[in-house]
TrEMBL record:
Activator of Hsp90 ATPase homologue 1/2-like C-terminal domain boundaries: 22-157
Organism, scientific name: Phyllobacterium zundukense
Designated name of the protein: Polyketide cyclase
Alphabetical list of InterPro entries matching this protein: ASHA1/2-like_C, START-like_dom_sf
SUPFAM superfamilies: Bet v1-like
Family stated for the protein in its record: Belongs to the AHA1 family.
Length: 161
């Protein structure tokens, strides 16, 4: 049973992607919480992840090292805030692991999984501190990027897990 969401989207500050995917919540959860799985689908191709670290506990680290096709590199540090197995995963870059404040926060993400037949109702919400950051994220391609990543996640689960 999925717990009710404690967070309601604010259209001025938040971006939301909601879809139903034909894979069970348990496999989506496993793909989201296991470093070797995250590295296979988490960033839109041709970008790739060379390293992923997960300490799945409140205050624990979620770190990825991403590489782009032209040699770009992006190292992302997040802190887990809430972990409800097979239901909800909340992480932010507003805090570093151990709840240390970060210098340049961009978002807090809430991933919600709900059983839907034999599949999963998947809701990803990116929360921002102000409308300008939300707008920037939308212009960066939030819906296409996070949608592509969800397609990659589903394809990875159905072909590999």
């Amino acid at each position: 049973m999925t717990r009710p969401s404690i967070v309601k989207p604010d259209p001025k500050l938040d971006l939301v992607l909601e879809r139903v995917v034909d894979v069970p919540c348990e496999l989506v959860w496993k793909a989201w919480t296991t470093p070797e799985h995250v590295a296979k689908w988490f960033t839109p191709k041709p970008w790739y992840i060379s390293d992923c670290e997960i300490d799945l506990c409140p205050g624990g680290i979620f770190r990825t090292v991403m590489h782009g096709p032209d040699g770009e590199q992006s190292i992302n540090h997040f802190c887990y805030l809430e972990i409800v197995p097979n239901e909800r995963l909340v992480w932010t870059d507003a805090l570093l692991p151990g709840y240390r404040p970060s210098k340049e926060p961009f978002l807090t993400a809430v991933i919600t999984l709900e059983p839907h037949g034999s599949g999963t109702k998947y809701t990803a919400m990116a929360m921002h501190r102000d409308e300008a950051i939300r707008q920037k994220h939308e212009e960066m391609g939030f819906h296409d990027g996070w949608g592509t990543v969800l397609d990659q996640l589903k394809d990875y689960i159905t072909t590999t897990m």
